[in-house]
Structure formats: C-alpha cells, structure tokens
Amino acid sequence: MAENNDKHPSRRAFLAGAAAVGTLATQSRAQSDPAISVQPWMQELGDGVDAAPYGVPSPFEADVKRRNVEWLTADPVSSVNFTPLHDLDGIITPNGLCFERHHSGVARVDPAQHRLMIHGLVERPLVFTMEDLKRFPRENHVYSLECAANSGMEWRGAQLNGCQFTHGMIHNVMYTGIPLRLLLEEAGVGTEGKWLLAEGADAAAMTRSIPMEKALDDCLVAFKMNGEALRPEQGYPLRLVVPGWEGNMWVKWLRRLEVGDQPWHHREETSKYTDLLEDGTARRFTWEMDAKSVITNPSPQAPITHGPGPTVLTGLAWSGRGTIPRVDVTLDGGKNWQEARIDGPSLPKSLHRFYFEFDWDGSPLLLQSRAHDSTGYVQPTKAELRAFRGVNSIYHNNGIQTWAVAADGSAENVEIS
Fold first, then answer.
1. Which of 70-84, 159-173, 360-374 has the lowest mean pLDDT?
2. Which strands, in side-by-side order, build the sheet including 195-200?
3. Is the pTM of this model over 0.90?
4. Same domain, 299 and 406
5. Do the domain assignments include residue 196?
6. Burial 141-179, CB ≥16 within 10 A → b, else e
7. Is residue 370 within 8 Å of residue 400, measured between CB atoms?
8. How many structural domains is the chain composed of?
C-alpha cells in the first residue's frame, strides 16, 4: 500500500485553482445571473426582535433535521433517530439535531418534583433536589456521545445509503454538570463499594452498572448542554455523562445511584449491549468506544454538485480513549493515503473535524478515512474487524467506511475487498 504523508500535497495549486474558478464565476455571473440584481428582501423591512423569542433556523435550512428509519424498530417509543452529520460543520452538534435513542419514549419530568437518590454501600444515604445539586461545584466539558449500535447495520455489508444513517448515532456537545465523585464523596462510599448502578426515571427504568473507578474519574451529573438546560429527549432535567463509553451508559432522567460490591447484570448488559462473537460467546462490558472516522462530504446525502475542479472533502473522527492526532484519507479505495488537515479544538473523547482539499478531475472516487488516536490505535478495516469478531454483533462497529463517488458526483455506500 503506497503512503503519502504530505498533509497538503497540492495546497498552492488548489488555492490557485480555486481563485481562478472564483474569478471566472464572478465574471460570468456579473454578466448573466439575474440573482445579482436587487432582491425583494433588500426592499422591505424584516421581522422585529420578538418575532422568534427562541431562535429557529432559516426556513431554507428546513431539510437539516434528525431522521429515523421506519423499518428499523417496531415502535418509535423504543427506537432511534439520527444526527444529520452531512449537513453540519465544526465539532459542536446543535441541541435540536442531537440524535435520540429511547427505550420507552421521552420522559416528561417536572424538575421541581425530580429527585436524585444515592444509597447502597454508603455511609450516608442522600436525596437531592435539583436546587441542592446546583449548589455543588460544576464543570464544563465537550464530549461525544456515541451509541454502541452506531454503524451496527453495516456489520454484514453496506446497508444504509447515507452518512446520517450509517454514522449518525453520535453527537458532540458541551456538558455542564457536577463531577460525580463529589456527590459520591458526600454520601461516603465504603471500601467495599466497587460498582455503581445508575437508574433513569423513564418508564423503562433504564439501568447500567458502572465500575467505581470510572465513576470517580471523569463522570458528570449534567443538567445543561451547550449552555442551556438539557432537552427532554436528552434527559431533562438530569443525566449521567460517562465520557468515552457507549451511550447506553449515559443514563437519562437520572434518579438513582446505588453503590454495590458487584455488577447487577441487568437486561442492558446481558441480553443487550454485549458483543456476540462468531463462536456464539459474547464479550461483555466492552464500554470504551474505539477510534472511528467518517467522511461526511462528499457522501450519499451530500453529493458533489459543482463538477470537476477544486473540491473540499470533510469529515469527523473521534476516540473514546483520547484525542485524534491524525486522520488519513484516500481517494482510490486505499491504494494511496494522504494526511488530512485537522481543524478546530482537539479535545479528549470529543469529535475532531478534518478537511482535505483536492482538485477533482471528474473521475470516479472511492473515498475512505482512517483515524489514529492518541494511544496509537489505528482504525481498522471492516474485514479486519470481521476476522476477529464475525458478523453476529450489532455493536462497536468502527470499521473504515467507503463512499463510491460517480463521475456525475453522486455517492453510494459500498464495500471493497
């Protein structure tokens, strides 16, 4: 496999080409484009400051929204919808576009009646109101939340034709919350307290067992995201944040924390959220999310529409174990790899935005990206994953994704050997 480690192999040529295209486009449009003339919105007053007390996107962006796959589940109250990754840029996901995953629908919780109880193997069982919790020291951290089943439909082959549907069970926001260790210290965890059971206030009574080492490390009890209160579908008024670990453990509508000396082996860590291997055995407690990446543009929902010439490729990379110091991209299905440009904040256990600018000659492309994380781990191919784990699982698929771009700029989800 040939390697080219030049980050920007044709930056000067690309910029020169882009400038030339821009000059030609400007000259042409100045002569013939009617849109350059005075438009209606330039001749009339717009809405006043109170027209939308809570701001909303432009109506011209109405197609940028979460979407579900109707046949994926039997009922929408125990289902998922997907973040439109192909329509976003940067690393922060707007609150209204963060994917949803529910096991019994959205709980509508009155914060004045909501309580968080800590009990079990503690010195002082405690019950907190929301007002109590907001008196504790708080921190702000940007983390990505990825469902363990993200890309799960792709284990047996290319299935869903869109970046939103193959990789959209992820979002990245700034959480404001209380370090979980402060609340556990207030209750006084005994030396025999090795595990923590988190329970939600939804009708499913969602529960997960969490090792005490993780609970005392970087977990948060969060009440805000991107500066405002959690949305109901994201756990309002209180949720657990378990950085770098599968989203099912980030219990929403958090109401109870029980300290124990062993895991509880509940439904979501036995019959669900385990990795069924080829021989029929199941890997359990595979909490960490491995390094992963995806090209968001071009992709099936974001084809190349401008024709040959200067083209910007962009995507996302992340790891549950740290940061992403490097992302490689290939235009020819892995024959030649080149290093992409990572732009914006590089935060641990958070999304990273990468770009690769190139001059497209109009020939077909096989686009892939490959993430390297700060532990030295390199994102594997799907073939490498299947050789180790088979195709029985639906969880923790972090294999390299391929988009085939045709000469007309359209893109399709494919696999190559």
1. 70-84
2. 126-129, 115-120, 254-260, 195-200, 207-211
3. yes
4. yes
5. yes
6. bbbbbbbbbbbbbbbeebebbbbbbbbbbbbbbbbbbbb
7. yes
8. 2
Q: Say whether both 274 and 297 belong to one domain.
A: no
Give a yes or no: residue 39 inside a domain.
no
In a domain? residue 75: no
Q: What distances in angstroms separate CA 120 from CA 38, 186, 197, one per listed residue?
A: 70, 14, 10
User: Using CB atoms within 10 A of its CB, is residue 402 exposed (0-12), middle (13-18) or buried (19+)?
Assistant: buried
Structure tokens at 275: 């990795």
Place of tokens 């490729």: 313
Q: Which domain holds residue 340?
A: 292-414
Please indicate, yes or no, whether residues 261 and 128 belong to a single structural domain of this protein.
Answer: yes
Which DSSP helix (H) or strand (E) runs through 152? none
In a domain, 55, yes or no: no
Together in a domain, 391 and 279: no
Are 313 and 362 contained in the same domain? yes
pLDDT, mean over the chain: 93
Chain segment 251-294, per-residue pLDDT in tens = 999 999 999 999 999 999 999 999 999 999 999 999 999 999 99
Mind listing the pLDDT tens digit for each residue in 101-140?
999 999 999 999 999 999 999 999 999 999 999 999 999 9
Helix runs in 57-208, H state only: 130-133, 163-167, 180-187
